[in-house]
Recover the amino acids of this structure.
């Protein structure tokens, strides 16, 4: 006579979100990403070396032919992708082919060309204000200092640093956009989430010769792999040295 066995209970597999939540809690207990870095200098060099081998020589992805056009493109890039900006600027610069024409353009006409970049009312005012200030106070020639640059309408440290490094090769600061803000924290390069404090910490800890390329490398890597919501850790070349990998790895496979 065969023995009867009680039916086996079906085990319910916890949802991926629960797994990720638990992993995140476990990782949290061991400290923040920056607290898990034992040798900051060595860690930074490994990150830079990896990114350099991935991207090589880098420059701004924004399209421009004149120095002031780059400035306008960077103003437009606030809260907007570079791809979108590059779709908008050709028609804008064709409609207003000189600094004078932009300075004298009605705001409504500028807004018409930049509408899709978002915040177009404020951006149009900044573009027109920038053009007038550059034309009348600087005779159309961009200044070469961060202090002067940040006086332009629509210019913060990020915009000023991008323009100075691209136009003149002058590196006075470290560019922190949304990608850089996210990746510097995930990679343990900073303990802060505020762009100004991030810039200050990087400038104190990382040699100046790396500032410009490191920022661009992080921007490119953020776009291609380390997404804000679902980073692709399974295909990330930095995964072996990333202190945040276990928080996201279960979701990226």
């Amino acid at each position: 006579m065969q023995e009867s066995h009680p039916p086996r209970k079906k085990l319910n597999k916890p949802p991926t979100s629960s797994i990720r939540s638990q992993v995140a809690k476990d990782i949290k207990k061991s400290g923040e990403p920056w607290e898990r870095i034992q040798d900051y200098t060595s860690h930074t060099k490994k990150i830079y070396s990896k990114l350099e081998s991935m991207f090589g020589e880098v420059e701004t992805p924004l399209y421009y032919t004149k120095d002031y056009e780059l400035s306008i493109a960077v103003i437009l890039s606030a809260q907007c992708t570079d791809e979108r900006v590059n779709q908008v600027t050709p028609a804008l610069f064709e409609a207003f082919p000189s600094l004078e024409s932009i300075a004298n353009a009605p705001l409504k006409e500028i807004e018409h060309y930049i509408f899709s970049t978002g915040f177009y009312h404020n951006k149009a005012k900044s573009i027109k204000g920038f053009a007038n200030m550059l034309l009348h106070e600087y005779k159309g020639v961009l200044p070469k200092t961060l202090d002067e640059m940040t006086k332009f309408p629509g210019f913060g440290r990020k915009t000023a640093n991008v323009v100075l490094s691209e136009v003149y090769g002058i590196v006075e600061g470290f560019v922190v956009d949304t990608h850089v803000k996210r990746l510097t924290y995930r990679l343990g390069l900073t303990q802060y989430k505020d762009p100004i404090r991030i810039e200050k910490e990087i400038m104190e800890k990382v040699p100046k010769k790396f500032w410009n390329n490191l920022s661009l490398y992080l921007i490119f890597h953020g776009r291609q792999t380390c997404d804000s919501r679902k980073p692709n850790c399974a295909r990330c070349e930095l995964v072996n040295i990333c202190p945040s990998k276990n928080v996201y790895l279960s979701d990226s496979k």
